[in-house]
Amino acid sequence: MEKIAGTTAFVTGGASGIGLAIAAALIEEGARVMIADVNQAALDRAVLGLGPSAAAFCLDVRDRDGWADARHAVEARFGPVDILINNAGIGPDGHALADMDAVSFDRMVAIKLTGTFNGIAAFGARMRARGSGHIVNTASMAGLMAIPKLGAYTAAKFAVVGMSEVLRAEMAPHGIGVSVLCPGLVRTNLGVNTQLAGSDRIVPDQSSAEAGLDAAVVGALVIEGIRTNAMHIITHGDGRRYVEKRMARVLAAFDCVPVHAANAPT
Asked: For residue 159, what is the domain's CATH number?
C-alpha cells in the first residue's frame, strides 16, 4: 500500500507504547485513525495528543460484540477501514509452563491470539470485498524463537506469526497486504498494562524499561512495512543469530529422513 494519506486505520492497544507510536506515524502520513484500548483514561489522554485526525474507542479485544460496535463506530466516524493494526497484548508472567496458572495461560491466548483473530474477523472480509487494504498483526521476537519462562507468550506469538502467514497467502489474490511485526525490547507500558489485565507479572525495573527501543522507531518501521508489503517487520537485528540457530535445528531434522518417504510420519 503505497498511499497512506486519506486512508482510515484502526489500531488496538493504541493508547500507549507501540500502538500509540503506530497511530501517530499513520496520522503523520495523512491517515485518519481510531485507537482502541481497554484503558479508557489512557485513551482519553492519547487521543488528545494525536489531534483531530484521531478518535478513540474503549475495547477489550476478547469481546466480539465489542468488535462489532467498534467497526460501526470507526465506519461512522471515518469510513471503511483500510489499515488494521492488531497490536493489543500483554506481557508474560514469567512462570515456567509446568508452574503456570491455567487462568494466566488462557488470558494470554485470549488477548493476543484470539484478540487478533477477532480483529481479522471484524474487518478482513470487508477489505477483501473492496480489494484493497493492509493488516499488521503484532507478534514478537518470541514468535520466532523459544525463550524459557515465556511459554504462553511464546505460544501465542508463534501462533500470531503462523496465522499472519496464512492470512497473507489468503488475502494476496484480493489485493490485501499482510505483515507481522516482531519487535524486540521496546520502551512501553506493557508491564503495567499486563498487571491491569489481571496478571501477577512483576513489572521490570525502570532501568530495564529504559533499555528498550524508542516506540517511535517501531512506528516508522511499520509505515515502511505497510508501504512495501513486508511479510515480517523486524525491529532488532541482533535477534538474527538466535533465529538462525533455531532454523538450523529445524532444517537439520530433515536430514534424517528421505526426501520422498512413502510412510513418513505426519
From this structure: 3.40.50.720
